[in-house]
Amino acid sequence: MGFNTALSGIKASADYLSTTGNNIANSDTTGFKKSRVEFGDLYSSSVIGAGSNNTIGSGVSVNNIAQEFSAGNISYTDNNLDLAVDGSGFFVLDVGGTQAYTRAGDFKLDEEGYLVTNDGAYVQGYNAVNGVIGGSLEDLVVPTERIAPEASTEVTIETNLDSRADDVPPYIASSFDPSDPDTYTFTQTQNVADSGGVQHAVTYYYAKSETANTYQVYVTVDGEQTDSTGADWMAETYVTFDDADGSISGTAFSPIYSGTTEPVSGDIVAPGSSAGFSIAGTFASGATVADTLASTGFTTPDNFARQSFDPTDPETYTYGNTNTVYDSLGETHTIGYYFIKQGEDNVWEMKVTVDGESTYTDPTTGTEVPYLTEDTVVQFDNQGNITGTYIGYSPYAVSSPTQLSITGWDPTDAFAELEIDLGSSTQYALSSSDTFSQDGYAAGELQGVSFDEDGFLTATYTNQQTAVLGQIALANFDNVDGLTPAGDTAWVASSDSGAANVGKPNTGTFGSIQGGALEESNVDITEELVALIEAQRNYQANSKTLETENTVTQTIINLG
């Protein structure tokens, strides 16, 4: 009897040593769960007498080798396909048609793009079609083909236009003083004879007013602003000139309006004409003067006003920038957008260029037309918020609301339309700037993949696009202790564990995904080394029992 008891102890100690040794051997195995030996004592029922309280045991047995599913430390790596579960879930694998489960997330892509383990098992998940996650559990795959280009259809330009920027020439707010050049923009002088035949020097002073291309005109005669009676030589007068392109009159900077008030919408009618400047007054000598300077004699602001728009010349616009859009073949084109301050009424004219050109050939007429209709403007309110985009601005026309878009920019499709959205653009006293976005892209090759905490598999491409390719699956069990080890750090379900509950990360009790990380073994080397000592001690003690039993038996034999 003693021999069997000692032998059972030796065998149990050997199992203890083997289990401990296996834990130590797998201390660096990703996702490994340590085991422990659960012992039970033995009693022989044949020697137990009824009501006996002094039964001697028959040794020990190994009742169970149980695995401990406590989480291991999470170690971050440089591999986007390394995954760890932060929670109680298991990755789901297809191993030759059998479903297995693992905590080891050191996955790879095989030659066909499938996500697999080191031993070739297929990782299960939900593949996406056109970015929509499917509902069927299947082998998770990364499509390696390139993605087709997408033509731009809309651009968004969120801009701030500096309210402190000057019109050209700048508005003069100070009171007129002929001795102060800062109170006027330019001058012209002529000689005029009075009623007595005496010549007098008449000087006209043009001071830029608040309205676009409009000037208030002052006059002095022999340096004096008033005649001998104290009356002004000329009534309050304003003059408006055409722009550098001669849009109204056909002649650059031609005078197209003059009057006693600044012009408003409707005051200027094509082709544009202007009354002259009339002066009248009395000199101290009693002589009088009455003269009119015809509009053809006005000095025009050729050297002061803004010249025709030229995207290569920053002097012809107030703010501009360029960015990239894509045609239907994925070719890049440079779109430029430029803003020109027009007067002091919160109005900015907008110009658009494509590949440096501000016009394109209309395929139906064969004529050159601008990408944006001439006199397209952006209007802001007094709080600096955009109120809309319009065609026409005061004083040239009554504004008409418009939706910004251009055609003719895509050489592969002459009628392709590109909408322009200015969003919540502003006019604040901050440096002009903008934020640009558009919805097109070039063709792209697969550059890499990664997982987020919800287990979504996202691909990145060389064209800076991303796409959701699928979502990894997780499983959990009513009784994880009932799982059966299957090798390669995997388990299979059993009747004790119950069937797998399969779902998606970050739902229920599955846990979340840590991308670029691995779960380390939960083996504690210090504990295992202590366990080795205990197992060795137990083995030696049981061996001593066997040795003692043998000595006693030999003594009894010798007595005979």
Layout of strands and helices, then pairs:
Blueprint: H1 2-25, E1 35-42, E2 59-67, E3 74-76, E4 83-86, E5 90-95, E6 98-102, E7 108-109, E8 115-116, E9 122-129, E10 132-133, E11 138-139, E12 154-160, E13 186-193, E14 199-208, E15 214-221, E16 237-241, E17 255-259, E18 277-282, E19 288-293, E20 319-326, E21 332-341, E22 347-354, E23 359-361, E24 368-370, E25 376-380, E26 386-391, E27 400-401, E28 405-406, E29 418-421, E30 433-438, E31 446-451, E32 456-461, E33 466-472, E34 474-476, E35 484-487, E36 490-492, E37 501-503, E38 512-515, E39 517-519, H2 525-559
Helix pairs in contact: 1-2
Pfam families: Flg_bb_rod (PF00460), Flg_bbr_C (PF06429), FlgE_D2 (PF07559), LlgE_F_G_D1 (PF22692)
Main location: other
Domain Flagellar basal-body/hook protein C-terminal: 515-559
